[in-house]
Structure formats: structure tokens, C-alpha cells
Amino acid sequence: MPVTIVLGGQWGDEGKGKIIDALAKDADVVVRANGSANAGHTVVTDEGVFKFRLIPSGILHPGCICVIGAGVALDPATVLEEVQQLRDRGVPAQNLRISSRCHLIMPYHPLQDRLEEESRGADMIGTTQRGNGPCYADKASRRGIRVADILDPEYLHRRLEPVLREKNAFLSGVYGHPGLDPAEIAEQYAAFGEQLAPFVTETELLVQDAIDAGRNVIIEGAQAAMLDIDYGTYPFVTSSSPTAAGVCQGAGIAPTQVDRVIGVYKAYLTRVGAGAFPTELHEEPGDTLRERGAEFGTVTGRPRRTGWFDAVQARFTARLNGLTEIALTKFDILDGVDPVQLCTGYQVHGEAVGAPPALITDYDQVEPIMENVEGWPEGSSSATSRTAMPESARRYIERVEAEVGVPVTFIGVGQHRDQLIRDATPSQV
Ligand code: GDP
Ligand code: IMO
Ligand code: MG
Which string of b and e fits 86-121 if b means at least 16 CB within 10 Å? Predict the structure, then answer.
């Protein structure tokens, strides 16, 4: 049985939740590997719309163990709220497991996130303000608090004292913000510890045991490769590694254990937050794509910026992640748009550039080279196979495959979990 990674290939919100839900039907374990409650992964079933922020998108399948891996920055209040919301809708969360090694979002993290954003002024990143960046920064500088720590109130208290001394000096010194009380936080987080305890385990071992037993394991990436802290449009990125390598680390598996890497790409492109976007549409059909695609942030409700599919970034992220397949989502949103365009190259001062630049200001000089593909007036949302799709729609998919160099094996043609074409191009699908 394979280990499959599902990750975002663009700037997030590609429809990873839907693809993971589809694969989870036949999976034994789904492991969310990175990010925090900055993510919003949507699954639409006959029971309605489910939006997952920390809980893996396989939770609707009763036979599937859903793991929050060590690479996730866990907001304890959010995960407990999600568990409750699921229970209220008749979905028991008894299959949820949380790594004892997860770092925790602490009360000072969202506060710091907001204050830092405000102080950036015009250079604001547009973070989700969930404390993601400050939490990963504390993890790297070894002042983080982990799930295991809050299960031992005495240790938690001891650990928080010096951390809060430093945080409070920073908050008041830099931002003139009143300090936080370590005893109060210790008490609050010890209470979270009690509530989380039934879910906490060494998930790394659980995942390895599942792989050893030949189980079907899905690794769920949050965010996306162009938001990666190393390879994204730095500094307009998130603070974890949503790449194939990064999610291996977050899930506690080795690269040699992975069989499939599915990159999820929208058939067009969106971005929420600030930063470069060479194919951005500032006029029609940008608004049409936003309205029809309901392109408003799952977490923050912010309108997403819209644009054309960018094969330069797609090729880059496909190579970085060793993709074996592409899931091309929201194809139906392009129905009736004519022509459909895609970007096949970048030009800087008349010279062709093969990959996204490292320096963010270099993007100001990028001129995307665009190609037109004839639109398809007929709808694609009722298609159940690739061959049943309109001819020009098939041609567009073939252009994406040719430009990115990876076969498209899933095509999303609607929001509902059933509106997904699985194309049997590679033998394992
Ligand atoms: P994720 O973060 O990658 O899981 O994606 P989000 O859930 O944030 O955003 C994707 C949005 O598109 C959600 O509202 C999904 O329900 C929706 N969606 C996913 N796939 C399709 C598709 O093929 N067609 C349409 N119309 N909507 C889709
Ligand atoms: P999913 O998993 C889209 C973006 C934010 C901001 C930048 C940094 O649903 O695809 P952060 O709060 O992480 O410090 O914000 O990253 N961002 C996302 N954009 N989808 C996401 O997650 C995102 N998670 C973070 O908008 O630009
Ligand atoms: Mg999302």
C-alpha cells in the first residue's frame, strides 16, 4: 500500500481538502504535517460544508485514523472547538491523534503576529494573524512550548517563567503593550492539556507502524510550495515548509517511504495576502473567477486575488516536490471563459527567465508570456471522465501537462466530493 503526499503547488486554497477526502475513502491514516489554524481545508458532502483548520481532511471517513503530526503548530482552543463542532454534526472524533511533539500556539503568538503586521505598514505580509509565524520562530529559537509540556503542569510552569520574562520585555519595550501573566497562561494551558490528553500520543510511531504494516497512508500538506519559507516569494510566505520534504519531516516519515506525490493546482490561480503575482488579473475575467469560484479566504474571509495559471511557478514547484501527479481543481470555474490563458514563461528586460526569481523586487520586472487556449462554452461540471469533457477543455489540460511535465490524474469539476474525475493515466490510480 502506498504512502501518498498531497500538497499545494501554488499559493494555497487549491482544493487540497477535497482531494484528501477523496483519497481518505480508501486510506487507513491521514497525517496533517505542517502549518497551523492558518489553513482552511474544505470538504463538501451531502451533509453540508466542512472546513478543517487543524483536523485532517480524512476525518469524515470512520475507518481512517487522523493524525496531527509533530510539524503542526497546534492552537489548542481551535482544535478542541473543531472536535466539538464535528461532534455537534454527528461526526465522532475518536480517530483523532495528536503528536506530543507539536508546538503550541500560545496567547502571545497571535498578539505578536498582529503587532508585527501593524508595524510593517505598507510592507504588511497579510498573514492570517493566527500566530503561525511567531510560533515557528519560537520553535526554531528553542523557546517553544510543546503538547508534551502542557501534560506536565509543573514543567510547564517552570518553562513559561523565562519565556514570559523575555516576551513581556519585548511586548512592552518594542510595542508598548502590557505584559502577560505566566501563572494565568500556565493554568489555562494545563487545562487544555487535560482536554487534549485523550488524543495525544507519539504519532510518529503510529505512522511508522502503519507503514510497516502496509497500510495506506496519506500525508496532508497545508499551505503550498509558493508559500514555502525557503522557496516561496519570501518574505511574503508562511513560516513552515509545505514542500514534499517539509511534510515528510512534519509527519515523521522518510523520503524513501513515499510512493506518490500529488500536487494540487487550481486550473487558474489565486493568492490571499500580499506578494508577487505575475499573472494577476486586475480586470475581467478576474472578478468573474472570484465570484464563480467563491474565492474568499476560508479562514479570514478576505477576497482572494485571481489570475491565470502560471506554468513557470507550476514547473518550479513540480520539480521541487518530485510530483508524480497533478490534481487540477476548480476546472468548472473556467467554463464559458473565452479565451482561457496560461503563462508559459517569464521575460525580464526582454530575456527569458525559466523559474521564479529569488529576489522579490525582481518580480516587478517580470512580464509573463501568455498563451491563449480556446474556451469551452459547454459546462464541464457534469463530466465524469476526461474523454467526456469538451475538446478544448481537454486541450487546456494537455497544455498544462506539457508545460509542467507531470500528468493530470484528478480533475475537479465542482465543489461536491463526487465532482471529481479520476483519470487513469498512471497505472497506480
Ligand atoms: P484547500 O485549502 O487547498 O483545501 O482549499 P480551500 O478549501 O481553502 O479552497 C478551495 C475551495 O474550492 C473550497 O471552497 C472548495 O469547496 C472548492 N473546490 C474544491 N475543488 C473544487 C472544484 O473542483 N470545483 C469547484 N467549483 N470548487 C471546488
Ligand atoms: P491552506 O492550507 C492560502 C498565506 C497568508 C499570508 C501568508 C502568511 O488553506 O491552503 P501566515 O498566517 O501563514 O503567517 O500567513 O500565507 N496563507 C495562506 N494562503 N491558503 C492557506 O492555507 C494559507 N495559509 C497561509 O494569507 O499571505
Ligand atoms: Mg484553504
Answer: beeeebebebbbbbbbbbbbbbbbbbbbbbbbeeee
Q: What are the CA-CA distances from residue 259 to residues 204, 256, 428, 429 (Å)? A: 18, 8, 10, 12
pLDDT digits 0-9 by tens, 197-234: 999 999 999 999 999 999 999 999 999 999 999 999 99
Ligand 2: residue whose CA is nearest its atom 13: 238
Q: Which three cell numbers stand for residue 151?
A: 501534560
Asked whether the whole model's pTM tops 0.85, one would answer yes
Is 152 an annotated catalytic residue? Answer: no
Kindly report the number of other CB atoms within 10 A of residue 175's CB atom: 15
Q: How many CB atoms are closer than 10 A to CB 17?
A: 27
Helix (H) or strand (E) holding 204: helix 203-212
Residue among 21, 28, 41, 310 flagged as catalytic: 41
- Ligand 1 mean position to 6 CA, how many Å? 14
Residue 35 beta carbon below 6 angstroms from any ligand 1 atom: no
Ligand 1, pocket-test mutation among 7, 10, 16, 18, most atoms within 8 A of CB = 18
